Amino acid sequence: DGKVLPEIAAKFSANRTLYVIDQYIHNLKKLNAIGMDAGRQDYGISGATQKLHELLESYDIPHFYESYQGDHLNRIAERIRTKMLPFFSEHLVFE
């Protein structure tokens, strides 16, 4: 019926990245690359991505972060071509 179930919403809230990340810092520091971006008008994601960037900085975890003029979809093709694929090409290793 589309209604939010409070017990399910509570589980989602309790497991948000920003709430649980402290327990994973050791593992995050082992990663070869972390990359993220968000459009400034992507109101559901932009603020959380900015906070994640700040948190990673506070732990001295190297990462790529960029906030750009746009929303969730309006520049996605351009961003994949100019940012995501080059990032993967630089950091993914296939043996």
The tally of helices reads: 5
The percent range for strand residues is 5-15%
Which oligomeric form is depicted? single chain
Query: What's the overall average pLDDT, rounded?
Result: 94
Low-confidence stretches: none
The N- to C-terminal Cα distance equals: 48 Å
Percentage of residues in helical conformation: 40-55%
Spatial order of strands in the largest sheet: 1-2
Shape: globular
Task: Return Rg in Å.
Answer: 16 Å
Number of strands: 2
What does this structure look like?
About 50% of the residues lie in helices and about 10% in strands. The protein has one domain (about 5-90). A two-stranded parallel ribbon has the order 1-2. The protein is mostly helical and about 100 residues long. The chain is globular. The termini are far apart.
Write the layout of secondary structure elements.
Elements lengths: L5 H9 L2 H4 L4 H4 L6 E5 L6 H13 L5 E5 L7 H16 L4
Parallel strand pairs: 1-2
